[in-house]
Amino acid sequence: MTLQKGKDIRAVSPGKPWSAMATISPYDTYGVQDAFGDWAGWVYAADADTGFWKWRLKSNYPILSGMTPTAGGIVFFGDMVGNFYALNAANGQRPWGQKIGGAIGGGVITYTAKGAERVAVATGFTSILWPTEVVTGKITVLGLADALANR
Questions:
Q1: SS (H, E, C) the chain
Q2: Span between the terminal Cα atoms of the chain, in Å
Q3: Cβ distance 61 to 41 under 8 Å?
Q4: Span 18-45, pLDDT tens digits
Q5: Is the pTM of this model over 0.70?
């Protein structure tokens, strides 16, 4: 963080966007991006009653996606390279993870269809601020094979 001078803040017209920098280039708006090899992200879980950390997990890539906890004790999220993960909500262990497409920068939903549990996630997030793989955006729907076999 760098404290901005009052004159720099006042130089922006009321009602105009300001990102705490005097620049109009979208590539300079948020500073210098970390080198791809230095990327990382963190997921933290806290006890809602006490506020104390229960666990934390370091990812190799930044995480902009939503975090979706389930009643079954699983937390779903994705990273900026397109990896999608399922975590054990109690201890943060990762029983499953797989690259399913491009960067994941949005929400994750869970639902039931014809008695089978499903997880849907949008992939292919792109932005001038993130040097992500450019792919066609898609919605990926995942489910449990056993649930389909038992119908």
A1: CCCCCHHHHHCCCCCCCCCCCCCCCCCCCCCCCCCHHHCCEEEEEECCCCCCEEEEEEECCCCCCCCEECCCCEEEEECCCCEEEEEECCCCCCCEEEECCCCCCCCEEEEEECCEEEEEEEECCCECCECCCCCCCEEEEEECHHHHHCC
A2: 56
A3: yes
A4: 666 665 565 555 556 677 778 889 999 9
A5: yes
